[in-house]
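User: Here's a chain of 425 residues. Predict its fold as tokens.
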Amino acid sequence: MNGTTPAATSVSLPPAREIPATFVASVRSWWVLWVAGEKESASAEERLLRRLPFFRSGSSSSLPSSNEPVVAHSEKVLLDNPKHFLNTLAMKPTSTAPNGPPPAVLLHGYGAGLGFFFLNFPALAQWAGTRGSAVYAVDWLGMGRSARVPFRVKASRDNTAERVREAEAFFIDSLEQWRARMGLETMTLVGHSLGAYFSVAYALRYPARVSKLVLLSPAGVPRDPNNTTMPAREITESQMSGTEDGQAASGEQLGALKKEQKAEKRKESKASRLFTYLWEEGWSPFQVVRSAVFWGPMLVGKYSSRRFGALNEDDTRDMHDYITNITLAKGSGEYCISHILAPGAHARMPLVDRIAELKIPITFVYGEHDWMDPDGGVASIDNLKAAGNNDGRMYIIPLAGHHVYLDNAKAVNKLLLKELDFRGR
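Assistant: Prediction complete.
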């Protein structure tokens, strides 16, 4: 999507009535993206944001009217590196309150963007106007419409702690630069999925800058129940020194054990082994969509219709266009995933083992049909209490899955308004 127009070519197509509508839509989407690039991406985002009557586009010169308590606009906030910027939606009250609550910052999940919160913006904007405090939504560096800069981790594959530290730093250090540029002293971070994971990581690195965490279906919280302290490996005869009762192992016992190991390995499907290999090699699922050429938008369409079935037709269409644009953009921050999470989506350094360091209110929110394990939230709250922090809470939202803020926006909005005002016991 470099914005250049490809050379014209002669292509013979069958009559229009013989071409499936889905194919025509896919060709049109791909062609528009190829030709327009960033311009079309901005338009797709703006179609979602224009649902806000107080949103002002970059081309609009109109000022907020006297009866508008809040005004919203989007901008690219430059970071320390001039090539780095974070795409930002700012919803600011027209009248600030000197003792208002800290501003709220919404942070999306893996491969998503700030537009995913479009059903939450009206309620949060009302909170901003009433409380006299701003609300921001930010695209992580390398995702959404933020700068798609190269993502690199120098640590070796075996150095898990350093791999995780470098991958986290790519995101949380850029968020810290953004905070400084925006002139914010403290923030309430509202993160979804991997964005919730990075919100916790940010709070651990910059504890004085976070007043509260609201974690929506957070990723990377629990330990992997199948993980062991050492990687699985086949036992050799020289390593087999004895059995649990202290008796030396016989050759027959060793042979039986090795036979069992081989049987277990055969049970592992070829697809599973391929997935694990690609994951460890840094493969990104979005590469499949980009490599699908004309069928890419159709793949996105199947995803959006399956994941966002609760949306009406217009919202689903606009979300499809938005997701297609940010998915087909240059790969960048998405390549963090294999460094942060192990195959199977459990964190290499689970938050449950780190979160007790925080002394701020932390709220966990899960959907009733969430695929994220709420037991991680329960264990985290227990760890917080053991460390003297009694401001850990958890909620289960009915009629919602992983995208809890979209699946049941009404319930989540009501909860967010309460949580943004909560400042601890």
